[in-house]
Amino acid sequence: MAEQPVEAPAEPEDPVHTPPTADDPALQHVHHLTRLQPKVVIKRDLLPAVCVTSVVALLGLPLGWFWARLAPPQNVWVRENNRLEPVINESFHRLDDLMVFVAIGLGAGVVIGVGTWMLRERRGPVIMLAAALGALAAGYLAQKTGVGWADGFYAIHAAPKVDDVVAKAPLLESWWGLIAWPLGVALAYGCCAAWNGLDDLGRRLA
């Protein structure tokens, strides 16, 4: 009887890598995970936001006093009919007073922004807006009270004579300096958020 040739076993074919379809359960699971994005918390952060705004606004009182002590006065001559004439180059202090106020506002805004960022469980746009609003209120209080304190620090107790040189209290003749306060908060808080890089800004890790 003739021997029949033995066929060699067929080698397994390489599996064909086909792209996953929409019905693939693994793909649906991955798609479900990518849709889980942290949402902005509003209602739970409203009460802390009010507290942040109130506390930050109160910082304007000591900062107004600090500006009144730091801003330079303007030396003026007393002319006839109690007319005040600035000494040469002393009128530049009008701009100096505003720039000192802006510098204080930017510095305070950065400190407020970083301090608010430390409230890890409340991180988000609600608290940032509350801090910026509080900084704007703090700047308003600082400007109103600072000018009043400056008038008291440089008050003239005796009637000056003609050609006397007296120190005129610092003034803030523009309200544009208030922009520096919330701008410093937004800049500091935005830099912290960009450096953090997490979708929820680390709230769940608190």
* SS field, number of helical segments: 6
Mean pLDDT: 83
Strand count: 3
Main sheet strand line-up: 2-1-3
N-to-C terminal Cα separation, in Å?
A: 85 Å
Backbone shape = elongated
Amount of helix: 40-55%
**Low-pLDDT runs:** none
The whole-angstrom Rg is 33 Å
Main sheet specs: 3 strands, antiparallel
Structure description:
- A hairpin with a 5-residue loop joins strand 1 and strand 2.
- Helix 3 crosses helix 5.
- The longest helix is centred in the last third of the chain and has 29 residues.
- This protein is 52% helix and 6% strand.
- The model has no long low-confidence stretch (mean pLDDT 83).
- The radius of gyration is 33 Å and the shape is elongated.
- Strands 2-1-3 form a 3-stranded antiparallel beta sheet, with no helix packed on it.
- With 206 residues, the protein is mostly helical.
Quick structural overview:
This protein is mostly helical and 206 residues long.
Q: What's the helix and strand layout?
A:
Elements: H1 25-34, H2 43-58, H3 60-70, E1 74-78, E2 84-86, H4 93-117, H5 125-153, E3 165-168, H6 180-196
Antiparallel strand pairs: 1-2, 1-3
What are the defining features of this structure?
mainly alpha, 3-stranded antiparallel sheet, 3 strands, elongated, 206 residues
